[in-house]
Amino acid sequence: ISDDEGLLPPFIISNFTEGLDTDNSTNLILASPNLYNTVLDETSALTMRTGTELAYTLPVSSTVPLLNSFIAVYDDGSSEFIVHAGSGIYVTGGNDVWTCIKNGVSSKYMMQFVMVNGEVWITNGVDSLGIWNKQTFTQYSFIPKGRFITTDKEQVLIAGMFADPSVVRVSSLFTTQGLYSSGKNIYDWYDYNQLPCGLGDGQIITGLFTQDNKVYVTKNKSIYGLLTTANYADPNTTQVYLYTTQYGSVSQRSIAN
Are 210 and 152 in contact (CB under 8 A)? Predict the structure, then answer.
């Protein structure tokens, strides 16, 4: 922010290791006394949010933390709103009618979501990965437990495993019969289908995302790109490219497409 518009003097925020304080008002982000947020859009216009409107009320106590949410859009055009709140995963198709599709999950590690072949894959690195198909929630113990998940070229990529903090695991592209893999078979997840990103550099993977048809991996102080012409599980067609060792990401939630 510059002083060209008579605002605050120029300043630099250089350390987000503890995250942003959203509980207390601060003039650094031009917050109103009511803590309404501001948005800097593509045209560099600074817009103040005027308020919020209640959309849904979850069937949980007001003290239960809302950890993450996802809008699932299915092949038939229908959609659902999925929320990880406390130790439960809840879903609604509208009209504020909620169903708990899974209880007893970690309330510390938030779920991440991705659409794969018309189904919602849900993972947090602690609980077994689960798949929701609008009717049933099924967990798969043989799929890697990762905190981050994305898809590209008909393959599922998972990272943030506590046992392998610098590795991206990749599902097989094809089955042994030559058909596209669903990712839900034990043979879709061979141990050797993995992409190391800076092994031994003292950092852990902090984010995994797809943007402009490219897959990026962030660590504390580095950013990698996963490049392939055909199959991420084929070392002859895949490259792990180090973009920078000067910048990184502290959290998946600090990344926005």
Answer: yes
